[in-house]
Structure to design on (659 residues):
C-alpha cells in the first residue's frame, strides 16, 4: 500500500475508535457535562490532561522549532513542562477542594463579585478561542497534505467529529476520547523517533540517542551538528543567541501561562478527591514528559539529516519528499547562482542562502526524510490529528461552560433548571465548534501569531488572582478586578503594538527591558500581582465568610464527592 | 471553644508546614530550570556528561530539568499525603 492508503486506513481506524468511546461515555447531567461526574481516576485524568494539553503545536511544530532554534528552543521545553510544577503545588489541590466547575466560578465566588466573574469569563473565552483556531488549522493542514483534500473539507471533517463527541458527551465524552487520543499520539510520535534513533545512533531510546556517537563516523552527534552549523554559517546548535533576560521571561510566561490555562485547570476538577488532584498532575506531567524529552532528540536527528541530505547537493539528486513539500509551498528553493546545487547556509556564510523551509514540516517530513516505511507516515498523520482534536475539544468545553454555567446560570439566569442548563451547554458547545471551524477555514491573518500569545494572556490575567486568592486572605474584590484588567490590557497592548500596529519596531532594541512579545506575559503578570496587592491594601478586606472559604480550601478534609449544582 | 482553638491552631500549623514544603520544592524547581538551564548554562557547558556528547548545561535545559520536574511532583504528593495524615486532615 502507498502512503495515502495507509493514512486513510490508520486515520479512519482512529476516528472510529474516538466515536466508539464517545458513544460509550455520553453525559446525562450537567455534572457529567462539566466535570465528568467527578469520577475520573487520577491516571486516566493524567492521560486525558496530557492529550488535552499537547496540541498541534506540541506534536507538529515543537520539534521543528527546536530544530531551527537549537539551545534557544529550550524555553519551550522547560516552559511547557515547568508550569505543571506550579499547577501541582500552587493551584490544583486547592481548586479541586473548592469543588466548582469552572475557573470563573472560583474567581466569582472567591472575590464575591459578578464583575470579577464576568471579567474572568471574557478572559477565558478570549484565551480559548485564540488557541482553538490554531488547532482547527492544524487539522486542515494534516488533511490537505496527507489525504489530499482541501483544507476547508479537512476542517469540516474535524469539526464534525469534535461536534459529535463534545456536544454529546461533554467533559465525560471528551475525557475518555482524550485518553484514546493520547495513546494514538504518543505511539505515533515515538515510533518514528525510535526508528530514526536506531538508524542514526544505534540507541533505542531517542533521549540517549541524541547524546550518543553517530554510527559509522563515531563522532558525537551534537559535535557533528555543531560542526555542520559552523561550516554552513549557522549559529552553533548547543549555544544560544537570545538574551538571558528574554530567555527567562519567555520561559516564565510559558510556565505561568500553562498553569493559568482554563482548559488545563478544569481537568483537575474531574477527579474524586484532593489527593487525586495532586497525583494526577504528576501523571499528566509524566505522560507529557515522554513526548517532551523525545522532541529535542527528534530535533537533532531531523536537523542533521536535513543538512546532510540537501545542503550542497545537486537539486536533481534530492529525494522525492523534497518535491512533495515544495508543491505545498512549505519548502521553497531558488537557484540564485544557477549552479544547480542547493546552497542552504546561515547568516555567517559567504554564500547566499537559496532554500527556505517552513519549520512546521520537520516532524511531518522527518519519517520521509529518513526513508521510513509508508505506514509510519500514515501513523504520524493520525497522531497530529489526535493532538489537534483533543486540544480543540477541551477548549470548546471551556467556552461552552463559560457561557452556559458562568454567564447564564451564575450571572444572568440563576433560576434555570438542570435540564435547561444542559441544553444551553450543548447549544453553546455547538456554536463554539462552528465559530472555531470558521476561524480554522478562514483564519484572520493573525491567528497563527496569536496562538502563542494565549499563554501570555493567561499568565497575565488568571494566574495572579488564583494564587493570591488561595495564598493571601487579605486579597479582595477590588484588587482582583484591577489586577486582571491591568495584566491583560498591558499584555494584549504590547503584543498588538509589536505584532500588528508597528511590526517594523519588533526588534530587541525597542523592547521594554529587552523582553520580546512572547515573554511579555511575565511582565504583565508581575504588574497584575503588584496592582492587585496594592489596590487590595487600600480597600476594605474581604468579608468574614470569604476568609472562611479560603481556610476551607486550604485543607483537603471535607471535599466530599464533589458538589451538585443546586438551583 | 478549646476544641475550636486547637483545631484552628492545627490548621495554621498544617498550612505553615505546607508552605515550607512548597518553598523548598520551588527552590529546586528554580535551580534546575532558570539556574542550570539558563543562568549558569555557559559555566555548566564546559563540562560534558561522561560517555555522551551532552554539554551539561544544554542537557539540563533540554532533558534534565524535565526529569526533575516529574520527580518533584511525586515527592510533593508523597510528602503531602504524610502531612495530611499527621494533621488528621486527610480525606476518608
Amino acid at each position: 500500500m502507498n502512503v495515502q492508503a495507509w493514512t486513510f486506513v490508520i486515520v479512519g481506524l482512529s476516528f472510529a475508535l474516538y466515536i466508539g468511546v464517545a458513544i460509550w461515555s455520553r453525559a446525562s447531567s450537567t455534572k457529567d457535562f462539566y466535570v465528568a461526574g467527578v469520577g475520573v481516576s487520577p491516571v486516566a485524568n493524567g492521560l486525558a490532561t496530557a492529550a488535552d494539553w499537547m496540541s498541534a503545536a506540541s506534536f507538529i511544530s515543537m520539534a521543528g522549532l527546536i530544530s531551527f532554534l537549537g539551545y534557544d528552543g529550550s524555553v519551550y521545553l522547560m516552559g511547557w513542562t515547568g508550569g505543571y510544577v506550579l499547577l501541582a503545588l500552587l493551584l490544583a489541590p486547592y481548586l479541586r477542594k473548592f469543588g466548582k466547575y469552572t475557573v470563573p466560578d472560583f474567581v466569582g465566588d472567591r472575590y464575591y463579585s459578578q464583575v470579577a466573574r464576568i471579567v474572568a469569563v471574557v478572559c477565558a473565552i478570549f484565551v480559548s478561542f485564540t488557541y482553538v483556531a490554531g488547532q482547527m488549522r492544524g487539522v486542515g493542514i494534516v488533511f490537505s497534505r496527507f489525504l489530499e483534500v482541501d483544507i476547508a473539507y479537512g476542517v469540516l471533517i474535524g469539526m464534525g467529529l469534535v461536534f459529535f463527541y463534545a456536544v454529546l458527551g461533554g467533559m465525560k465524552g471528551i475525557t475518555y476520547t482524550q485518553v484514546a487520543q493520547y495513546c494514538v499520539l504518543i505511539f505515533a510520535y515515538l515510533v518514528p523517533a525510535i526508528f530514526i534513533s536506531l538508524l542514526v545512533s544505534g540507541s533505542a531510546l531517542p533521549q540517549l540517542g541524541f547524546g550518543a556517537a553517530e554510527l559509522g563516523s563515531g563522532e558525537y552527534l551534537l559535535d557533528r551538528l555543531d560542526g555542520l552549523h559552523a561550516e554552513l554559517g549557522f549559529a552553533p546548535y548547543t549555544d544560544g543567541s537570545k538574551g538571558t533576560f528574554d530567555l527567562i521571561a519567555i520561559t516564565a510566561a510559558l510556565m505561568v501561562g500553562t498553569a493559568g490555562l482554563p482548559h488545563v485547570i478544569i481537568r483537575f476538577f474531574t477527579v474524586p478527591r484532593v489527593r487525586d488532584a495532586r497525583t494526577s498532575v504528576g501523571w499528566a506531567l509524566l505522560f507529557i514528559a515522554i513526548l517532551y524529552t523525545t522532541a529535542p532528540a527528534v530535533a537533532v536527528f531531523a536537523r542533521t539529516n536535513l543538512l546532510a541530505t540537501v545542503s550542497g547537493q545537486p537539486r536533481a539528486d534530492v529525494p522525492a519528499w523534497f518535491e512533495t513539500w515544495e508543491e505545498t509551498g512549505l519548502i521553497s528553493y531558488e537557484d540564485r547562482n544557477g549552479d544547480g546545487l542547493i546552497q542552504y547556509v546561515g547568516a555567517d556564510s559567504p554564500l547566499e542562502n537559496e532554500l527556505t523551509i517552513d519549520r512546521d514540516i520537520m516532524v511531518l517530513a522527518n519519517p520521509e526524510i529518513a526513508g521510513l516505511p509508508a505506514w509510519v507516515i500514515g501513523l504520524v498523520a493520525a497522531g497530529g490529528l489526535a493532538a489537534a482534536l483533543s486540544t480543540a475539544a477541551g477548549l470548546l468545553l471551556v467556552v461552552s461552560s463559560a457561557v452556559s454555567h458562568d454567564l447564564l446560570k451564575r450571572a444572568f439566569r440563576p433560576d434555570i433548571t438542570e435540564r435547561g442548563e444542559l441544553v444551553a451547554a450543548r447549544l453553546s458547545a455547538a456554536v463554539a465548534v462552528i465559530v472555531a471551524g470558521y476561524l480554522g477555514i478562514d483564519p484572520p491573518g493573525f491567528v497563527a501569531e496569536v496562538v502563542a500569545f494565549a499563554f501570555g494572556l493567561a499568565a497575565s490575567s488568571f494566574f495572579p488572582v488564583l494564587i493570591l486568592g488561595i495564598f493571601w486572605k487579605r486579597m479582595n474584590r477590588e484588587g482582583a478586578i484591577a489586577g486582571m484588567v491591568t495584566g491583560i490590557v498591558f499584555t494584549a497592548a504590547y503584543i498588538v503594538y509589536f505584532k500588528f500596529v508597528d511590526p517594523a519596531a519588533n526588534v530587541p532594541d525597542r523592547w521594554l527591558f529587552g523582553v520580546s512579545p512572547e515573554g511579555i506575559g511575565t511582565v504583565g503578570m508581575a504588574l497584575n500581582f503588584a496592582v492587585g496587592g496594592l489596590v487590595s491594601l487600600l480597600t476594605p478586606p474581604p468579608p468574614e465568610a470569604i476568609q472562611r472559604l479560603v481556610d476551607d480550601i486550604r485543607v483537603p478534609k471535607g471535599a466530599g464527592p464533589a458538589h451538585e449544582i443546586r438551583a | 471553644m478549646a476544641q475550636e482553638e486547637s483545631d484552628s491552631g492545627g490548621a495554621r500549623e498544617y498550612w505553615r508546614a505546607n508552605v515550607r514544603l512548597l518553598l523548598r520544592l520551588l527552590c529546586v524547581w528554580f535551580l534546575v530550570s532558570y539556574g542550570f538551564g539558563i543562568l549558569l548554562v555557559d559555566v555548566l557547558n564546559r563540562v560534558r556528561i561522561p560517555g555522551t556528547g551532552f554539554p551539561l548545561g544544554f542537557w539540563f535545559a533540554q532533558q534534565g530539568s524535565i526529569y526533575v520536574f516529574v520527580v518533584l511532583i511525586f515527592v510533593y504528593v508523597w510528602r503531602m499525603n504524610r502531612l495530611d495524615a499527621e494533621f488528621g486532615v486527610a480525606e476518608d
About this structure: The beta strands of chain A are 331-333, 355-357.
